[in-house]
Amino acid sequence: MVSCAKKESQCVEEALRKLGIKVKVINAAHAFYNGTTTLPISEEDRTPRKRISKTLNMTTNPEEKRKIIGDTFVKVANEVIGEMNLKPEEVFLAQGTLRPDLIESASVEASGKADVIKTHHNDTELIRELREEGKVIEPLKDFHKDEVRALGRELGLPEDLVSRHPFPGPGLAIRIICADEPYICKDFAETNNILKILADFSASVKKPHTLLQRVKSCMSDEEQEKLLQITSLHSLNAFLMPIKTVGVQGDCRSYSYVCGISSKDAPHWDSLMFLVRLIPRICHNINRVVYIFGPQIREPIIDVTPTFLTTGVLSTLRQADFEAHNILRESGFSGKISQMPIILTPLHFDRDPLQKQPSCQRSVVIRTFITSDFMTGIPATPGNHIPEEVISKMVREIKKIPGISRVMYDMTSKPPGTTEWE
């Protein structure tokens, strides 16, 4: 797989061999880089007409990336079946599909009426065709991840296998926010003004503003009082970043803005978490909020570093992911966190706008997630669920990687944010 984590293929192969399973590992990186699939002409087009997608290494749309990866997997598997002189009618595809995968993909196996949150690689159109032919074996499709772990322990599987963090089928491909242009809609300026009011509420209430009343109407008196207290004690700023990520609002998929918060002093996590809960409730076009480590951001960014699934970009994220997970394992807190996606974003901070320096670096996000069933969940609060020093060490090590501008911390619950960013 082109977008596996560092040493992921090797670890999986060794684990399966120890269980006595004969494994044939296929390096299909080239096939995935250049993989395509067929897609509807447009989201509005309800006719059977199809178009050929761009290749994976030139695709920015997260849904298209997932579909290309899932369908390329089936194509590669079919090629291997031919090379091994196996009879296709005697070959079955075994998948570790779980209940949440089918729910989020709006599969008829789970609920035909659900809205698609994201297409899982194990529930693409080609997979569904194989399923209809009775060629797919999915023994875990009625279970959630916590139940699968319980089953693994009942079966006597090694604890390091049972408790390892889930790694998405599409791999690091959905942990890289690909973009060739900034995401700035007509509501960008107004939303930024609302965020300024919230981040500096103690000063904003003294200056009449047309948006102030709208902000106040979304909060209770107690919340206004708490926000006054927080913004009096801490120098914060909040702003939109010109990228979008996948979220879930109600039972529907959202694909919208990320809000960044930075502070003059060290982060006060309880105060930040209060703001994080408030922002998406007031600004419905925001589904994710992150804290940006380092000095307070002076100039919010309005452009992006062109980013695609190229070998260099994947290598950068692979190294950041490796460093962060090593530190988490060594800290002994790996078991306290359900999953920790590390995300690469096309954002280059700390550029003087007068010098017109181009956007050429990227920033990394640490997403610690705590859940029992992966349908809902919360971020791990530093100083509460995980020591602040563990997170600080991750930030320091990731910052050493060439081409990294800043490190951020995702503080979003699910909903409104999904576990993964895409």
What would you say about this model in short?
This protein is of the alpha/beta class and 422 residues long. It has 14 helices and 12 strands.
Jot down its keywords.
alpha/beta; six-stranded mixed beta sheet; 422 residues; globular; two-stranded antiparallel sheet
Explain the layout of strands and helices.
Layout: H1 8-18, H2 29-33, E1 38-40, E2 50-52, H3 62-83, E3 93-94, H4 99-104, H5 125-132, E4 136-137, H6 145-154, H7 159-162, H8 188-199, H9 201-204, H10 212-217, H11 221-233, E5 236-249, E6 252-263, H12 269-282, E7 286-292, H13 311-331, E8 342-345, E9 362-366, E10 369-370, E11 378-379, H14 388-399, E12 404-410
Parallel strand pairs: 3-4, 6-7, 9-12
Antiparallel strand pairs: 1-2, 5-6, 7-12, 8-9, 10-11
Helix pairs in contact: 13-14
Describe it.
By secondary structure, the protein is an alpha/beta fold. The chain is built from 14 helices and twelve strands. The chain is globular.
